[in-house]
Amino acid sequence: MATLREIRRRIVGIKSTQQITKAMKMVAAARLRRAQDAIFKFRPYANTITHLLDNLISNISELNNPLIQVREVNKITLVVVTSDRGLCGSFNSNLLRFTEEYIKTELKNYYQSNNLEIVCIGKKGHDYLSRRKYPVIESYLNVFSNLNYEKSSEIISKLTNNYLDKKTDKVIFIYNEFRSVISQVVKTVQILPIQVEKKEETKISGLKPIIEFIYEPEKERILSTLLPKYLDVQMWRILLESNASEQGARMTAMDNATENAKELLKVLSLSYNKARQAAITKELLEIVAGADAMKEQG
How confident is the model at residue 2 (pLDDT cuts 50, 70, 90)? Predict the structure, then answer.
């Protein structure tokens, strides 16, 4: 059985840890509010530019832009978005476990033939995948400590240039999408080539016909200008989603840690009181026994 001193040391240590986790929860909650506000404000813009692109593509007969044209896939770039810091529950572990499974199943042939390259955004992904000898060719660290649109644009520009130079034939992102404070979903999305669906005009009665817009200048010029902006928007949205997911996961994890510390303190306090009571009882018994012995001798 643990001594009173050992129990006291554990109680002091857990109280200190509880103060840290409580403070981290409050910091994560403040950051989550800002991150949540940013992603909620940006989603309508991202959805609108996607809708505009879909409508524009539906009105172009031949799509010759290299960012859209599908070509034979010889090499794939996989971009894995994780956090730079830990203490955020299963935020990173779930994503990295999914990434490994995805590589070994969906990208198995490319991985085995050395035609898969990995770009990491976040220190946790870099450390995990590099340690396991996956083909990490580039890493962007500490992106989320000062998240800004310029860095996002720099990353997607480099990926786009590699695609246009035919150094890679497909770019896929794996990231956490923010659903709520307690829910983050691992998502995969193909960024390049840009996936499009040409919508045919419906003739089913009762449905609204597709509205035809008049474009000025010509549609092809607008498309060539819109596509890089669309890629910038998608990249920025992925980073915002991941950032909000990380803060939500960290706040939840720290809240659970604080509650667990509270429960553990209750158990240790009970053990401490029992041990203290037993020690006092033992001392009383020893005093009584000593007094009885002195009476017998007297």
Answer: low
278 found inside a domain: no
Tell me how long the chain is. 298
Q: Are the C-beta atoms of residues 226 and 56 closer than 8 Å to each other? A: yes
Distance (Å, whole) CA 237 – CA 143: 14
Quick check: is 120 catalytic?
A: no
Q: What is the DSSP letter of 18?
A: H
Residue 15 CA, distance from chain mean position: 29
Q: What is the DSSP letter of 145?
A: G
Instruction: Please check whether residue 65 lies inside any domain of the structure.
Output: yes
Q: Of 158, 126, 136, whose CA–CA distance to 231 is shortest?
A: 158
Query: In this model, does residue 298 exceed pLDDT 80?
Result: no
**Residue 83 sits in a domain of what CATH number?**
3.40.1380.10
Determine if the pTM surpasses 0.70.
yes
CA distance 93 to 76: 23
Contact in structure between 84 and 122 (CB atoms under 8 Å) = yes
Highest mean pLDDT among 62-71, 92-101, 260-269: 92-101
**Residue among 286, 287, 269 at smallest CA distance from 4:** 269
The single residue of 76, 88, 223, 227 carrying the catalytic annotation is 88
